[in-house]
Design a protein that fits this description.
Length: about 270
């Protein structure tokens, strides 16, 4: 039974890692209860990037005259600049932002964190690092729920600001959680025969962390740049491939991980 439990927990961590790292959004027909309240205190690009990357959004554009002043250039993130027949320079900027319909992630992070929570709880007796990973995953789960529910209670600039701050904290919880349970797994196979698996496993995890941060930034900016969004999909594919390689590396040390779990489950006997 212990062997079956270990295999189950190992699979939970592998699937959970992929779920919290990859996103496949599905646009539903359900609308948010209130339209987005645009703010005049910050540029439309900032509002659009945050709302689009977190909840899905649409926007309209306008042209501003920048031929006689550089003030508008400093206050707006420009997408394109044109000149009309009179010699005036006009810059295209985002005007109004609108909520899109509610998006659902097929590879839902909620499921991913629940799988990781279950696995870390099952591995808690092996070493205390899994207890820390459990707490980190629990914080990530709570942050995910809060981020999902924010548009139902808040709106406008406050929603933009709080979703950006909590989004960064959420990214941190993903990185910390994967770091902790990876460290816990490496501690389960300390023998010299698993030295290469630990080394390459750490490299694979580090690459996943870099790709996760880069993906978040690219998709945030890519809300209004289709080329960057396409680049984000490529990075996401590389991220999933790297995570698969991480688990294939650990699979080479599977028997040692299993033995460590069985030993801890039997009280070290």
């Amino acid at each position: 039974m212990s062997n079956l439990k270990f295999k189950l927990f190992f699979i939970f961590l592998a699937v959970g890692f992929i779920f919290i790292a990859a996103d496949i959004d599905f646009r539903t027909s359900i609308k948010y209860p209130h339209p987005y309240e645009n703010s005049d205190t910050v540029i439309g690009e900032f509002q659009y990037y945050n709302i689009s990357s977190n909840y899905g959004a649409k926007c309209t554009y306008k042209y501003i005259d920048t031929s006689d002043s550089t003030e508008d250039i400093n206050n707006h993130n420009t997408n394109s600049t044109t000149k009309n027949s009179a010699g005036q320079t006009q810059t295209k900027v985002i005007d109004k932002v609108f909520f899109d319909n509610i998006h659902i992630d097929i590879l839902n992070d909620l499921v991913g964190f629940l799988l990781i929570l279950a696995a870390c709880f099952g591995f808690r007796r092996v070493n205390k690092v899994f207890s820390f990973a459990f707490f980190s995953a629990f914080c990530g789960l709570i942050l995910h729920i809060i981020l999902t529910l924010l548009p139902f209670f808040f709106n406008g600039l406050f929603l933009c600001n709080i979703s950006m701050v909590l989004g960064l904290a959420y990214l941190g919880s993903i990185i910390l959680t994967t770091f902790l349970f990876s460290k816990g797994l490496f501690l389960m196979c300390p023998d010299v025969c698993c030295r290469d698996e630990r080394k390459w496993g750490k490299i694979a995890w580090f690459i996943s962390m870099v790709l996760q941060i880069l993906l978040t930034f690219v998709l945030w900016i890519g809300s209004d740049f289709s080329a960057l969004k396409s680049l984000g999909y490529i990075i996401e594919g590389l991220l999933v491939f790297d995570i698969i390689m991480f688990w294939l590396i650990l699979k080479r040390a599977y028997i040692y991980l299993e033995q460590s779990y069985i030993k801890s489950a039997s009280g070290g006997k």
